[in-house]
């Protein structure tokens, strides 16, 4: 009996320690944030970027399953689930087989999970982590999948896909486990373990047009919330609109969206440094605009860009990593390896 008891205590301790040792993972995706966007944002920010504080740098090959130039659905799926697929598809591979995302695998390991975007929350990048669907455009179906998912905290626009639907369902009513908050104060005060914050009815506006709250404040409040749950967590934060600035070929749009994302990276890095057991990965799904940095001034903080396309380009994108297992992310690899490396970091 005594032996049994001590065995039980040993098991309990081992389990407890394993839980505590599991690192937090924060994956930050700058949509359309190629090396030129980073360089331009850095020079516009007094020759400085938070990315200089990272330990390891890699390069990711972004091509899709059978397309040279990827879209955000295929590359999001590659990073989230580890498989190359067709453009436009979320969470399923080229043979129509669904794959678990790193978020879902973390959930199975007892992690809490969070998704944050400056687009609508059913948009391709965040949806890559929870949806399994043949078209990224089916926003209402994607929102339905999120409503039936188990993500602990999600923040982004697109409220209309939940409560102004063709099928007349009101998912906000149906999601009885969730508390829906209206600002960051309510988020901080919430005692719920399932929280949604739908920031805008449609797509959130540009940062230049007054989008609120600031992404860095969303990140800080969310980190505080996730920490309060007392379990390891997986969090994906997307700077969604760097890509939209690239599509619009508007340098001001790109720079202002990057600036906010850069500030957010700084906040996240400070959290990781203080915490000591948080892996932070910052990367992009692809480059947008075929941007070249064709002129500028270091002294005056000016970056002038020339775009070569209204779409994406196929150039490799950088991967920056900090924290436990960060060294896994050095080198040159397929975007699917980002999933493999995150998985390795939680199973080590
Ligand atoms: Mg995106
Ligand atoms: Zn795009």
Observed structural traits:
Alkaline Phosphatase, subunit A, binds zinc ion, 13 helices, globular, two-stranded antiparallel ribbon, 348 residues
Low-confidence stretches: 12-18
Strand order of the largest sheet: 5-6-4-3-7-1-8-13-2-14
- At the first level of CATH, the class is Alpha Beta
**How many domain units?**
1
Task: Give the % helix.
Answer: 25-40%
Can you give a write-up of this model?
With 348 residues, the chain is α/β, with parallel strands linked by helices. The chain has one domain: Alkaline Phosphatase, subunit A (3-Layer(aba) Sandwich). The protein is built from 13 helices and 14 strands. The strands form three sheets. A ten-stranded mixed beta sheet has the order 5-6-4-3-7-1-8-13-2-14, with helices on both faces. Helix 3 runs parallel beside helix 13 and helix 10 packs parallel to helix 12. The protein is globular and about 55 Å long. About 2% of the residues have low confidence.
Summarize this structure briefly.
With 348 residues, the chain is of the alpha/beta class.
What secondary-structure arrangement, pairings included, does this model have?
Elements: H1 2-21, E1 24-30, H2 35-44, E2 56-61, H3 72-81, H4 102-108, E3 112-120, H5 124-127, H6 139-147, E4 153-157, H7 160-163, H8 171-174, E5 179-180, H9 184-189, E6 195-198, H10 215-228, E7 233-239, H11 242-247, H12 251-275, E8 278-283, E9 287-288, E10 292-297, E11 302-306, E12 312-313, E13 317-322, E14 331-334, H13 336-347
Parallel strand pairs: 1-7, 1-8, 2-14, 3-4, 3-7, 4-6, 5-6
Antiparallel strand pairs: 2-13, 8-13, 9-12, 10-11
Helix pairs in contact: 2-12, 3-13, 10-12
Zinc ion (ZN) binds next to helix 11.
